[in-house]
Design a protein that fits this description.
By secondary structure, this protein is α+β, with helices and mostly antiparallel strands. It has 13 helices and nine strands. The strands form two sheets. Strands 2, 3, 4, 5, 6 and 8 form a six-stranded antiparallel sheet that branches. A three-stranded mixed sheet has the order 1-9-7, with no helix packed on it. The radius of gyration is 27 Å and the shape is elongated.
Length: about 375
């Protein structure tokens, strides 16, 4: 049911909580010998620390900083040094590069902390609001912990989904098993599966989102872009007519400029990957994109794709989605849930289509 992450008493001081995922290519014998849920002392750049082993990762705990600034400065140096070491050695040491704030009144699980048993936390008196804690952290996030406050650590299953596996039940529960041999010859579906496996394994929601978008684009890669809407064809035709009239008798400089405008207009009508995605997701939802009677659900799908690409753009161009920003973090989390369902639905749709006839995805690989 979790455990205390701080002493909750004494003078003001701070500790760093840093989870580390060590790649299998790294030889770290001393870490491998630590029993699960046990910790050993170590020293990081002159600071006494401990390393605790969890089931799938380690937690570095560096206590005793007199101020948040000193702890934050140490973390920046530590993160920079570790990232550069991993790059120089082509080795994987994953850790959250940004310190998350301790969850307080904005904690969606605050109700849970209010019901913790006082007997399990001697010395932590219950507050007026009924809580026995001042805040909480998730074990798989890097945090700056105020050791003088009552900070509780959530159990790991609050932050990462755990899916039980019973091999003897897999074949019973999977009606698609008869199609396995055919799917193994479908390069697109296999590639999407590999990308999804990598995405599902990500702790960082931002990396997970980008990988899921990549998977969706791979699925849509075998789809035609489809015909543009009638209104778009009419508008672009009118624009091209105006440009053609203006080019007549114009100077070479103006003519060259108008030629570039004409090419830009052509790009508007060439829908590219966005058009392929819209067509694919309309088919997955059973919507005919050319049926005017279905314009409302079609526009809803178009709007959903546009919103997802806006999030993707914020992540890929400038890293605007910061996990320390509650608004951005909320948008990312909700968008991630929508995207994951879209990708899985699209993949299973193509999987079923593959069983019935050679799919458009398969044709693209022939």
């Amino acid at each position: 049911m979790g455990k205390p992450a701080s002493q909750g008493t004494g003078s003001e001081r701070y500790a760093l909580h840093i989870p580390l995922w060590i790649g299998t290519e790294i030889q770290a014998d001393e870490l491998g010998r630590i029993p699960i849920w046990k910790s050993v002392p170590t020293n990081i750049a002159g600071y006494p620390a401990t390393v605790e082993r969890r089931e799938f990762y380690f937690i570095l705990h560096v206590p005793g900083f007199p101020s948040e600034k000193e702890a934050g400065d140490f973390f920046d140096v530590f993160a920079s040094t570790l990232i550069q070491w991993s790059l120089r050695n082509s080795a994987t040491i994953r850790f959250p590069p940004i310190l998350e704030p301790v969850l307080t009144s904005n904690d969606p699980n605050l109700w849970f902390r209010k019901h913790l048993s006082s007997e399990q936390y001697p010395g932590w008196n219950r507050s007026e609001d009924g809580s026995i804690t001042d805040g909480a952290i998730h074990p798989e996030q890097a945090c700056l912990i105020p050791e003088h406050k009552r900070i509780w650590e959530y159990p790991a299953f609050y932050t990462r989904r755990v899916v039980p596996l019973k091999l003897d039940q897999v074949f019973v529960e999977s009606p698609e098993r008869k199609n396995g041999v055919r799917v193994l010859r479908d390069d697109y579906i296999l590639l999407v599966t590999e990308v999804l496996w990598t995405a599902f394994d990500q702790i960082d929601r931002r990396v997970r989102f980008i990988l899921l978008m990549t998977a969706l684009e791979i699925i849509a890669g075998g789809e035609p872009a489809g015909d543009p809407p009638e209104y778009l064809r009419k508008v672009t035709a009118e624009l091209k007519s105006v440009v053609a009239q203006r080019r007549k008798g114009s100077t070479p400089e103006i003519s060259k400029l108008l030629e570039r405008c004409d090419l830009k207009i052509d790009q508007i009508i060439e829908q590219g990957i966005m058009g392929s995605l819209r067509l694919l997701l309309c088919r997955v939802s059973g919507i005919d994109p050319q049926d005017e009677a279905q314009i409302a659900p079609r526009n809803e799908i178009h709007g959903r794709i546009n919103a997802l690409y806006k999030v993707r753009s914020g992540l890929a161009h400038g890293g605007k989605m910061r996990v320390t920003d509650p608004t951005s973090y909320g948008v990312l989390t909700s968008s991630l849930q929508i995207l994951e369902k879209l990708v899985i639905d699209a993949l299973l749709f193509c999987w079923k289509e593959r069983d019935q006839q050679p799919s458009k995805i398969s044709d693209a690989t022939d």
